[in-house]
Amino acid sequence: MTDTPQPGELDLDDFARTRRRPPPANVRPVPGKLARREADALLRSYLEPPCFPEAVRRLAARHLLVLVGEEEIGKRLGGLALLSRMSLAESTITVLSPAGTVAELLGATEYAPGRAYLLHDWIATGADPGELAALARELAELGSYLVITRDGAPSRAVEVEQPWAAPDPRELFDLCLSTYNLRAGVAPDTLVKARHRAAELPTPAQVVRLAAGLAPGAARAAEEVAAWFDTKPAMREVLAAAALAFTAPLPEAAFEARLARLDPIWQAHESAPPAPPGPHPLISRAGGRAGFPTPEHRGQVLAELAARYGFWLWQPLRAWVRSLTAEEPEVRTRAAEGVAALASYAFKEARAEFLEVWAAGTAGERLAAADALSYMCADDTLAPKALRLALEWAADPARATTAAVALGGDLALRYPADCGRALRRLAAGDGPAAAVARRMGPDA
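Above: the chain sequence. Below: its structure as tokens.
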């Protein structure tokens, strides 16, 4: 267990220096507008699950529907698809904050007539059925529609909830092939292998990524990575590719120095043979820097690691990645970016093994956790999860200081009102978290 930092240990100037980059173009404030053409582009490869027709009927009748189910089964795109079926006065969709309570949705949100609203990954718990019914009546009077998505199991007491499920992965894979016209340019045996693998993937997003990886340009990277892992390479070589996924890009000498520190950690778990001679097929050393041959390789490597390997790889890798937070800011930031990228493929693991541990750890670990949440904000699917984590940490004395840093980072660009309120609550207290919140807050 790591020691809890003492007041003054967090170097916020250091954090600010690592965040001195233009904000990602897709980090848009919430509430915000999603144009119909953007929604249509997202829905190009959407496959309606069996529950979809009933959901269309219920949304049309009630004007409010809460899609409930496991994480990462396509609820967000399901909500967009349902709203696209409604008769609307304006085609844009207003995206609401996932932190809004039922009372705020009912009394503090201004709904315009004939509009569509989406609230993805709802954070609020214990919704009152009466308040939801009142919200549905208000929306019906305006001729507007709201779809909310949340993780968990449906409640029999809530009439507007709809159990949700993922579509068949093989059918989704076939739809992606047709949508993006991929069959003609891909070898038949590659398609057969990819379809078989799609059936084993746990989430629709991973199926879509697998199919997209077959497109010209991306196909080569996907095939190269998958083919290399199919050869069952030595674990030392797998660890080298994994290490790069959490540090790229770094100067070659810096990467080799960090990689050398991984060896004793790995050896402590299992005796490993020496690395095979010659260059690593997935590591490029151009211009004095260690990186992947193409940017797409990083995601492919993380996806393969999450799908293929268990304890014997992840146990030493976890220990090594965690140790990177004690390095200089560039290395720590690269590790945080790697964990944020991992969250796209294995969110539960990224949260449990890195984010939660870092958030209650040393000063460097706390800054890395805050950095990771900032990187997650660039992804529309991960951003609500990042906000949920920050708000949960704000209520946890062991992690409140980390929450204050995270709420003042890119989260504040995505959710300015929610982060501002949370920072003001923290700043009103005392101790290290309050001091950090006062410096990171909107009134600083």
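The radius of gyration is 23 Å.
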